[in-house]
Specification:
Elements lengths: L3 E2 L5 H9 L1 E7 L5 E2 L7 E6 L3 E5 L2 E5 L3 E5 L5 E5 L5 E7 L1 H4 L21 E3 L2 H19 L5 H20 L1
Parallel strand pairs: 1-3
Antiparallel strand pairs: 2-9, 4-7, 4-9, 5-6, 5-8, 7-10
Helix pairs in contact: 3-4
């Protein structure tokens, strides 16, 4: 059984507040998966399971690989329908993303905006490519490279650019 972390008193949440970013693996057998209830951070998630995702008074049922964009400006819920899912997620603040005066804001990404769908269906090749990006972020977090936050920011922006291109 998975160990659940409760963000209000967890090192997960404290680290997120200090650093502005967290990335983690999700899935049926993942360890230390946050029982994430806060909505003041942006979230990007890739998964291949069966879920019911509710947002903007709409309900979407998924059964294939998707990329999901959660925003503090758009309430959403996600309910697991079946075991056997896997994926990755990252949560971050606008401040983390915009350090060094970046031109690309999370607020400008159409998938984070309230009136748009936060879900992109993925082909097998897209799924593999995006999972590689998440694995790179996890590796960077564990490393001691001086500019790892810049690399992570750039990976998040790659995901946002991909989403913008797919949405248009």
């Amino acid at each position: 059984m998975k160990k659940r972390i409760h963000p209000q008193d967890s090192s997960f949440d404290k680290g997120l507040l200090l650093e502005g970013f967290k990335v983690y693996e999700i899935g049926e057998y993942s360890k230390d998966v946050p029982d994430y209830v806060r909505r003041d951070f942006y979230k990007i998630c890739i998964t291949d399971g069966q879920f019911i995702i509710s947002y903007n008074n709409q309900v979407t049922v998924t059964s294939d690989a998707i990329l999901f964009f959660g925003s503090p400006h758009r309430p959403y819920t996600c309910q697991t329908l079946a075991a056997g899912f896997s994926g990755y997620a990252c949560v971050f603040t606008q401040r983390f993303l915009n350090k060094n005066d970046s031109l690309l804001n999370a607020e400008d990404c159409s998938l984070f905006q309230k009136g748009n769908s936060p879900i992109i269906s993925l082909s097998k090749d897209q799924n593999d490519c995006i999972r590689d990006i998440f694995r790179k972020m996890i590796a960077e977090v564990k490393g001691d490279y001086k500019y790892k936050n810049e690399l992570i920011r750039s990976q998040i922006k790659n995901l946002m650019h991909f989403a913008e291109m797919e949405a248009n």
